[in-house]
Automatic annotation (TrEMBL):
Matching Pfam families: ABC_membrane (PF00664), ABC_tran (PF00005)
Domain ABC transmembrane type-1: 19-303
Protein's name according to its UniProt entry: ABC transporter ATP-binding protein
Subcellular locations according to the entry: Cell membrane
Organism this protein belongs to: Lapidilactobacillus gannanensis
Subcellular location, principal: membrane
Superkingdom field: Bacteria
N-terminal signal peptide: none
Keyword flag Metal-binding: no
Membrane-crossing residue ranges in chain numbering: 20-39, 51-72, 135-156, 162-179, 243-262, 274-294
């Protein structure tokens, strides 16, 4: 029952709705007491041969009235209580979704997509059920049970009522014992569902790789293993759950046996009439539903309780992004001063970055090069505030980015990541994703600058062509150029291209970089790349190795230095002359 307390904030906020719901429920239950009583009265009148046509029809009229009240009340409580459940669902979904969007990279590193999806679907459904079916079953079993017992006491006989209800406490004992087991079984079951979701999501996303490497059978075997584990855990839930009904049936059987034995004795001794006994048996019949409902109730409640705890644990996680000292959302602009002495990824002992110090005047371009896994993207991640727990300081225009709101830092940055993501919508909206009010002309200008405009015109629906999961598949190079168009659409103070030109040919790369240089005259650009021609015109180039700067200078200085950069440049020049430039040489 703890879940009702945990959801107290919600029931408090929706008090009016639930009070109306309970009122209608009470009306429906009171109307439900009429038929057994009427049947008893009619039976007695029949026995005494006093039943006239007029009395019969007036009682039937009374039954009809009770049926109408019941019909209208049911309509009322359904609207109120199910409506409440829908409101809770909306509330929790919004909370969870906003929470996901606020969280930092560490959170998403800890929780996999499938697990988060399970929280947002299965767990929320279970909690929502508490506010609908749970409340209904709880209130209805108490109201139906309570009013029926009161009717037994008033219309029949208190001694028979007390004796017949003697087995009832067994129900409470059973509910308590089984409820405890159910809670832990449900927690396990929901966690198993999360793992299953994870596996499904990963396999579906990676289906091309699985097939290419002929790993279908292995993946199916892996999947079956997880399914088998999930089923074993769910069977445990069903086993505990299925104990409720037989025990309830036993208790009901006992109640009937006591009623017939003791009630029969009371009829024989003329303490009650036969009609009253018939009414009493009908009332016991009315108690059957609330008794079974208690079993169902525990299922709903314990499932909801376990899920609510899981959702709350997720909502309780705080982003490690440092709280801003300001509330402004204005984009930061000005010179970039990057002074990071040390950074480690969460749960990793190795230093991912060490002594990365550079200054970039507004309007300058920085190149980041180095072998794979050197730390280029990590340098960018700190600037994007994916992680705040580094030693050192990064300032833009003299303002420490950790003192500013995340919005104001990110509003000034246009980022093209290594892995491009397209949303399931048309090309136009994908380009103006961060600036939906931009006109077609502005979208086209950005597309031209990133050399994707001509490709788009070749698609059947041009800018209306659907992309993403449900649309056409774009080539790697097209995706990259579309992502660049998206990033420059907001006219960012700092544009970051993280290996964003690797899939375009050298000629297109030169076109894009020349256009960007012209258009972004007073704006800063950071280019991380494997192909050194991407950074050759940068004001400063940092060669990164093992999280440290191992060479620095402009292109000419680095060539003169005759280190890794110069060697790689010569190698790439030879490769491009041999015709391999279209794929872009690797620097590993
Ligand atoms: N989230 C993470 N948790 C732990 N280690 C990470 C994480 N992301 C990256 N690393 C590690 O940090 C190091 C630097 O990675 P990073 O992605 O910055 O390299 P990079 O130079 O951008 O490589 P590439 O050129 O292949 O993109 C690598 O050893 C990588 O394994």
């Amino acid at each position: 029952m703890g879940i009702f307390k945990k959801l107290g904030w919600f029931f408090q906020a929706e008090k009016k709705r639930y009070l109306w719901g309970l009122f209608f429920l009470l009306m429906a239950d009171l109307a439900g007491l009429v038929p057994p009583r009427v049947i008893g009265i009619l039976a007695d009148k029949m026995g005494a041969k006093q039943l006239t046509l007029t009395t019969l029809f007036s009682w039937l009229g009374f039954l009809l009235l009770a049926a109408i009240v019941q019909y209208l009340s049911r309509f009322g409580w359904r609207n109120m209580i199910w409506g409440g459940a829908a409101t809770l669902e909306r509330e929790l979904r919004t909370q969870l979704f906003s929470h996901f969007l606020k969280m930092d990279a560490t959170f998403f590193q800890r929780h996999r997509t499938g697990d988060l999806m399970a929280h947002a679907t299965n767990d929320l459904n279970a909690v929502q059920n508490v506010a609908g079916a749970g409340i209904l079953t709880f209130a209805d079993s108490i109201l139906t049970g309570g009013t029926t017992i009161v009717a037994m006491l008033i219309f029949v006989d208190w001694r028979l009522t007390v004796v017949a209800l003697l087995p009832m406490p067994l129900l409470a004992v059973m509910a308590r014992v089984l409820g405890k087991h159910l809670h832990s079984a449900f927690s396990e079951s929901q966690a198993a569902f999360s793992r299953l979701n994870d596996k499904t999501q990963e396999s579906v996303s990676g289906v091309k790789v699985i097939k290419t490497f002929g790993q279908e059978n292995e993946d199916v075997a892996d999947f079956e293993q997880i399914v088998a584990k999930t089923i074993t855990i769910n069977k445990k839930v069903y086993r505990i759950d299925s104990l409720f009904d037989p025990i309830t049936t036993l208790i009901i059987g006992l109640t009937y046996a006591i009623t017939i034995a003791y009630g029969g004795h009371l009829v024989v001794t003329q303490a009650i009439t036969l009609g009253q006994l018939i009414s009493f048996v009908a009332y016991i019949g009315a108690l059957v539903w609330p008794m079974f409902a208690i079993g169902r109730l525990f299922n709903v409640i314990e499932r909801g309780n376990a899920s609510y705890d899981r959702v709350q644990a997720l909502l309780g996680e705080r982003s490690e992004t440092v709280m801003a000292k300001t509330t402004t959302k204005q984009p930061l602009h000005g010179d970039l001063d990057y002074q990071v002495t040390a950074f480690k990824y969460p749960d990793d002992q190795r230093l991912a970055l060490q002594n990365i110090h550079f200054e970039l005047k507004q309007g300058q371009t920085l190149g980041l090069v180095g072998r794979v896994g050197a730390g280029k993207t990590t340098i960018i991640k700190l600037l994007l505030r994916e992680f705040d727990h580094y030693q050192g300081k990064i300032t833009i225009g003299g303002r420490d980015i950790r003192d500013e709101t995340l919005d104001s830092v990110l509003a000034g940055i246009g980022y093209v990541p290594q892995e491009n993501f397209l949303f399931s919508t048309n090309i136009r909206d994908n380009i103006r994703f961060a600036a939906m009010t931009k006109s077609q002309a502005e979208v086209e200008a950005a597309a031209k600058e990133s050399a994707i405009h001509d490709d788009i015109l070749n698609f059947s629906s041009q800018y209306d062509t659907l992309v993403g999961e449900k649309g056409v598949s774009l080539s790697g190079g097209q995706k990259q150029r579309l992502s660049i168009a998206r990033a420059i659409m907001t006219l960012p103070e700092i544009l970051i291209l993280d290996d964003a030109l690797s899939a375009v040919d050298a000629k297109t790369e030169t076109e894009i970089l020349t256009d960007l240089k012209q258009d972004r005259d007073h704006k800063t650009t950071i280019i991380a790349a494997h192909r050194l021609s991407s950074v050759a015109n940068a004001d400063e180039i940092l060669v990164i190795d093992d999280g440290q700067i191992v060479e620095r200078g402009n292109h000419q200085q680095l060539l003169a230095n005759d280190g890794w950069y110069a060697e790689m440049w010569r190698k790439q020049q030879i490769e491009s002359q041999l015709g391999g430039e279209s794929r872009g040489p690797e620097t590993n």
